[in-house]
Protein 1
Amino acid sequence: MSILANKDTRVVIQGGQAGVNAARRMAEFCYLIKRPLNVEAFVYPPDAGKTNEIPYGSGLIAIPVYKSIAEATKNHPTLNTSLVYIGADRAMKGGMEALDDSHIKVVSMITEGVPEKDAKILGAHARKLGKVFNGPSSIGIISAGACRLGVIGGAFDNLVLSKLYREGSFGVITKSGGLSNEIIWICSQFADGITTAIGIGGDAYPGTDYVSYLEMFENDPQTKAVVIVGEMGGDLEERAAEWYGAKKRRVKLIAVVSGFCQESLPKGMKFGHAGAKEGMKGEGSARSKSDALKKSGALVPPTFGALGPAIKETYEDLLESGQVKAPVEPAVLPRLPKTVEEAMKADEVMVAPLIRTTISDDRGDEPCYDGYPASELINKGYEIPHVIGLLWDKRLISKQEAEIIKRIMMLSADHGPCVSGAYATILAACAGIGLSQSVAAGMIMIGPRFGGAVTDAGRFFKYAVDNKMSVDEFLAYMKKNHGPVPGIGHRVKSLRNPDKRVKELVGYVKSLKIKTPCLDFALEVEKVTSVKKDNLILNVDGTMAAVLVDIGFPVDSLNGFFILSRTIGLIGHWVDQKRQDSRLIRLFDYLVNYAAPKRREVPPLK
Amino acid sequence: MAKVLEGPGMGLMKKWGINVPNYVVVTSVDELTKLGQVNEWLKKSKLVAKAHEALGSRFKLGLVKVDLDFKAAEAATKEMIGRQVGSITVTQVIVSEMIPHKEEYYCAVKSTREGSEILVANCGGIEVESNWERVKRLCLEIGQSPSPESLEKLSKEAGFSGALAKKMADFAGKMFACFDSEDAQYLEVNPVVLRAGDDELVALDAVTLLDGDAKFRHPDWNFAFAAEFGRAYSKQELEVMAVDSKIKGSVKFIEIPGGDTAMLPAGGGASVYYSDAVVARGGKLANYAEYSGDPPDWAVEVLTEKVCSLPGIRNIIVGGAIANFTDVKKTFGGIINGFRKAKSEGKLKNVKIWVRRGGPREKEGLDAMRALKDEGFDINVFDRNTPLTDIVDKALQAK
């Protein structure tokens, strides 16, 4: 047997994420004791109508979320307990809602920082209705082998170590949430474990005090002794002592009280829980509580450390007198399935990776590009072109190469509003489309006729150089197999109206006195083609391509240089339109050649 | 529980219809001089000047001056502002009018488990403390308000009669209204005085403790809460409080000058048992600290730095029970970072560190602590099989 929480406890959790986390812990316990999940519903208006997925074993259970307690109990009439995880400013309203529902018999409030007045009102209301209001600031309630309410009991391993899968003989009542597990653990190591452990919360006026729970334990035949972990402040321990001393009790009482350090601290200094404050006339001090408990006949070890031996002594008496029998431990306990991560850490599974990367890794405190930490690159004077080199070609390029890339980017960052890419971005921007989509609209234009010839130009120039072709052989090869030479020809520029960008780039690269076989070949090609037609000049795509192949960039990365550079311009155009709050663009009729058939009658549908 | 200084405390009482003396809180003499030009009472009445700080024994320290005219009040203010008392600098002075009176009484409202209690006595000042049996009480359940009849009965029981009994009943009623509406935990007026001239009851000195947790529903609480132990919070304490107010979970830190055993335990409950153990073994606490509720590691790191910076420490107790949901690995990560930082700043020389803990990811956390040995820390690490406070015994025996 147990008190307050048992196998019939069906739970609704009021609250959001904290409540979901508690439900996970509760599901772990249910799994350990091989019982179905005891949480049936959540009440959390923002998520009403959704479900929360709670892991149970290796599966997931969907628990519905309702907007009110009434709705939850209507759909789940067996609900009898509510756990409140609502913020302090709304906790009282939530607690009242639960108490006022006829299905709910026990309300345990986990919320911390609830105003004292609210806690008193809730406690008084519960007493009036004959219900239990536990908390606020309660860590929860756990009955070994039967029911867990809240996170009390801790992680799965601790549940097993503390033998919470089966009943013991000791009841536990604590103000401190953190110490509840400690006492449960001590009871399992120095005795046969617990029946029920209750966190009543560390506030000054908890909704239910030691005496109410002592009374319940007294009436629970399985509980043979109760351990109270008290604190200075208030008079709950004195009341417990009064109860214990009033008449012969069936349960044995073991108690410790904290706060003796107060005696040697500067006057007025206090710490610990909100309730841990001494009265004006020394009442509520650790010493007066401890003395009262001793006087009542309770076993009061001098320190927390002596609690274990005191529990052991009590347990041995109980064994000797035949009141308890040594427990039989189950042979096999369920093991909580590990997550894939945990199992991998323990070298228990091998997972075939989904993707493979060879360029970057951000699992540490900062990203590494091809192994080099970004901050170190910055601090050692490397720049954007070097990052491009690392991520696109996995090598640290030279200062000179970086300068070439920088110039290429500067020359191709933008080309006015009329070209396909910029125009598409502007069109989208004027239609009120967002930055990334508008830039993507411009990006979509990059292809065989606009900006997308860099890779192909590089590929064919390289093919010619690698195969030591003459210009004539190359042009014949292209004509036969592929058509016009990518990188040659311009819509508006020509021999007489040369492209300044090409001149600039060629001039710079040539000044460096490096070997540029592709560029040299491309210029030879231009000499021949431009004679045939004066706009068949080496264009900026072709120049970039030849230079980039010459400094070793892989052919497949070449279009990337244009895409990257032009993104700068596209973003600029979007921001520019946005800044001007430009209107929607619609083509004028006179810009369209309407070549569709004249208006005619629609024949009857056959 | 949050203490409120006299100025804002009086303000709250005034709000609920309780007569209080005229007062002003100033931060400079100039401010007082200007106020004197617009507030006639400052020039006409006899005045009291007090340092408006969370300081005990102000009278003995010369930080209360009575029976002053305006010039003398200005002089007193000038003298008090900027005065250094221990770690506190006086920054505010409250100047209030003296109320001529013959009789002194007592009235208080305190929080009880059932609700509250109104206390009334027909003596006041120091007299009430030595005649506590003269204090009469009216117990109220939560949600219940005192009826005028019950208040008058209380007043008569306390020895008031005639018109005065009614006045005291009325005064107590207003005190209750203030207590109940302002989420107070303790209100005490000692003395309540009968003002010569108009025979009205006036609250002369007030202790106001409010429920800090209820601040969310009192937008007019525009004052800072004062430290409750007779000194102001130190810079380090305020820094930890600032972190505490920002995070999920909590970190707490109080300095205790002169100690040699530094505390860095987890949990509001366990931390006090650890402190008890230090005192029981004859150690001297250098501080109180506590972290709980799975706080972020950086917050624990800040707390650790403060603990490591305490002067003259020989041991650090990194204790803790078996946690429910605080991640031991993560919070210990914060502590370890704090330790490393302290060490790199030349701190922690000849300081022994004692660790005991359990809870989620306890093994990983404890292993990480143990590994600090290799970095030259003098650290001793124990798991759940060592009883909670045994590390304190070991630490204090070691010296």
Protein 2
Amino acid sequence: MNFEWLGRQSDNIVFLLGWHVLLAVTPLILGLLIALPLGWWAHRSRRIYPLLVGVAGLLYTVPSLALFVLLPLVLGTKILDPLNIVAALTIYTVALLVRVVADALDSVPEDTVQAAKAMGYRGYQSLVKVELPVGVPVISAGLRVAAVSNVSLVSVAALLGIPQLGSLFTQGFQLRFFTPIIAGIILCVVLAMILDGLIILLNRWLTPWTPKVVAS
Amino acid sequence: MIKFENVTKAYPDGTVAVDGLNLEAPTGKLTILVGPSGCGKTTSLRMINRLIEPTSGTIYLDDQPTSGMDAALLRRRIGYVIQHAGLFPHRTIIDNVATMPVLLGESRQKARMKALELMERVGLPASFAKRYPWQLSGGQQQRVGVARALASDPAFMLMDEPFSAVDPVVRAQLQEEFLRLQREIGKTIIMVTHDIDEALKLGDQVAVMRVGGKLAQMATPSELLTSPADEFVADFVGRDRGYRSLGFTNSAGTVTVSEEAVVTIGASAAEAQSKATGAWVLVVDGGRKPLGWAQADLIKGELKREHLNLSGTSASSSGTMRQLLDAALSSPSRRGVVVNEHGELIGTVTATDVVKAIEAEPHLETAR
């Protein structure tokens, strides 16, 4: 490890880290927002469920690099536009979370849903006030997977020259110099752990009602 | 009043769950729908608050047809209790109970105050207010379910097997408390159960339904026992209906109660033997409350608690023939213990005394 190099490059590394966070977290939030209605739809209709979950699974198998290259053709963006990365990772997040949201809503006890309806909750009130809150633990478990996956997928964008921590890898390989590679790996792992921890905390804050013996 | 007029529920595959049901649940009374599984009792109940829409026919709530109402607004007028309580796992007990008032637009603070009152009413300590449903036992959850249904003070209540998911001891306790509560609040209630004993115990009137969704008989519990409409009802009510109908016959003043000599704990073997009739002597505490029977010739030295046989039940002097007869039959001395309303001994009766009193009655009079 060349700490002197790290010291000199610290401004640049912070800049790359900032982009990495932005490119990983924005799709996470967008993906969740899109997956909520889609997952609700899959939950409501037994015929739609296999279709949506199937398509989502297929999307997830498309290699990320291929998606990064293909998206500009579809979106009409420039190949170096960070928007491509955001769009691609949003697709992956949606692919992961559609099933998660559907399963979260399925996990709400039938008695509870029936009681809400029988007490006079309208459909949307029951969804917002009962079903989604009760489904939070399942959704946050899925969100944790998506967050970690996004952090690692963002690095691939380095091959297109979009700045983020992956750029440290390409730089290291070109210079045959290990310091940036190790720094990049450590920062990626730390970032993934921090995001994961934040989701765990958020989940705890949203679900004070879960039995304490179950670790989330 | 809740009224069914020619209500039918048929499914597209041809199954008829409820077939031309006509039924009236009078205001302030507890009407029970009972029958074997597949008789359409739960379907009938759920058609009242339109969780299931009838295929044809009309259901009236106080003479207004429910079909024209907004379903959500209709449901907010009706309390609903289900088998496993169906509490909201993410809300505290107090907020579960406050659900309906909040939904109806009351402030959270006011709704919570009302909820606290109701919790006390159904026998839940205020310390439970901040707990979550998973921290409560099944019986406690069911109490919360009842409190939640009552929170908006609805005129009507629907109960779907409310006491069937708890153990028999808790069930009996919940049933007793619920009867007491209903005597205070006088709601118009329709309750579904598959348990005929529960129906006979709780119902002001009982509607027996048969498979295929038809009403077999609608009658008071004692009428069902003494004059079942047909073989199906007779069979469903059960083989020991003669004995059970005694549960609706008041015994007060008709059975001769004999005096019984008693001893207290610590009595000498000689005293016990002199007081015993046959082999057994009745043991009471200082306040003449019966403790149990002791076999006099087995006592060595003085009478101790371990000499007590506790198998006998005791009957209240104002109780039913069934309680009296059971007290006599369950007693090891074959003499049934009769107590007053404070639980103090009056005397004993034999099964023969009770049967004589039953035979002397022209008809089985109803206690209700």
